[in-house]
Write a structure and sequence with these properties.
The complex is a heterodimer of chains A (86) and B (131). With 86 residues, chain A is mainly β. Helices cover 8% and strands 34% of the residues of chain A. Chain A has a single domain, classed as Ubiquitin-like (UB roll), CATH 3.10.20. In chain A, the strands form two sheets. Chain A has a five-stranded mixed sheet with strand order 2-1-7-4-5, with helices on one face. The relative contact order of chain A is 0.24. The chains are: A mainly beta (86), B alpha+beta (131).
Chain lengths: 86, 131
Amino acid sequence: MNKPEEKNEKLHIFVNRVKYDEADGVTKRMTGTQIAALGNVPADNGEVERENGPDKGPIAMTQTVEVKNGDHFIATRLTVDGGHGR
Amino acid sequence: MDANLKLRVQRELRLLSEGGCEAVLVEEPVACVVYKALATGGDPASTDVAVKIPDGYPASAMDLAALPSGSPLQGRVAGGTNPQGTFSALGSDWTLSSYHPHQWPDNAWDPNRHGFHTYLTHLISWLKRLN
């Protein structure tokens, strides 16, 4: 008898269109700071938004949210300078 | 274009494609990547952005970012009032802005971690935080 196919997909999310999974530190519950860090955005100069689902909207850096497979987040720097500033 | 370089950039662009971002590798006359329809914080609500592939990549980091020449966003993006030249690609002219995210002290270039896929992070912020 054939066993049902097991779904063995790693937990993954997208931050700024790039896929990150458990090997990168993705867990079922993450703070805004942890999500921002995946996108290389510092917590003291950043903002995170969930792009999809009923909880779409901003996430505070100190807030902990449930993460589901395939969720999309946008992490941006609050201050963006030209020249050689950050 | 060197075959290994082309493979590397194509691999980075596939990572973006998986996340829903279209980006095109241009080999001539100027080697660059054109990111398509990125959201902005102003008008127009989206724009294409071109980033040159630097000589020596990936040992050397990409730098600057270019909007279509004449874009109303040019004077509003960081570094946009300090243009760094123009070039042609994909049938359009592009104007480079003085934007240097891999020269920030908290963002030193690491060719093992960074690439055109992670540079999108800096373009997203650049286009959202308009002056």
